[in-house]
Amino acid sequence: MTLGEHVFLYCERGTNEALLAEPVNALSNGAFLLAALAGFFLVLRQPEEERNADQFLLPVIVLFIGLGSLAFHLYANSAAQLFDVVPIGVFMLAYLSLALNRFLGVPPATTAFLVIGFAAIAAIVLQVRCGQDFIGFPPADLTGVKPCLNGSLGYLPALAALIVVGLVLSERGHKAAPWLLWAAAIFTVSITLRSLDLALCDKVVIQGRNTGTHAAWHVLNALALFLLMRASLEGGPAVSVKPHAETPVEFLRPEEVEAVREPVSLTPAAEPDEAETEDEKREPKSFFPA
Asked: Is the pTM of the predicted complex or chain greater than 0.85?
């Protein structure tokens, strides 16, 4: 396949090679641009001493995701498709690195190993094809097969990683956990809608045009990416709703140290009344008058 060859993947385009054959899909990429701007705004709201370079990196990648997707839905050729999928892959690898290293405290070398393993799994999954009575890795001479779930199968490793990391963070009480789990829930819906785009092609019609559900994939994905960018501001492994007793004190923030420290009373114990006789001390006192 040459870089200029047209690619027909989605309901709205059909087999139309025109530049504006996918107006709804193209316009819906504005959601990515809004998400990127919102991500920049979140970072700039942070105190300057709490900002990190990767907090700016994530909105930049989301911006390129939107521009790449827009280019593909305008030109619909192999070159534009490459510009579409590369930023998505970069975001997945970058965010997995951040989640493992910063949120979970995984050492850099182990993080690199796990990220490489994830990339290998995703690459293998992308080679799976589906056809009539066939699911797997087809031989070169097999015809009638195509990417499974309308090409959405390749996103399942990212969804699985997001769910696993979110659940682990939730068990640890990390503040980023709810953001990741909500993003995973939205991502699940968006993958489903992307997979059903062709199947529901003639069911979703706008102004007499079959549009399918791919535009909804864009909007929901933009929301999920925003939630992930919001989660990235929550800090390291010690930032949790309630600190764990086993967490070393040196890894806790000052307010967390105070929360786990056993309170010490500064008021001296009351001395017994000197006027009280020994008999009165031994005699049990009543709450009621005699």
From this structure: no
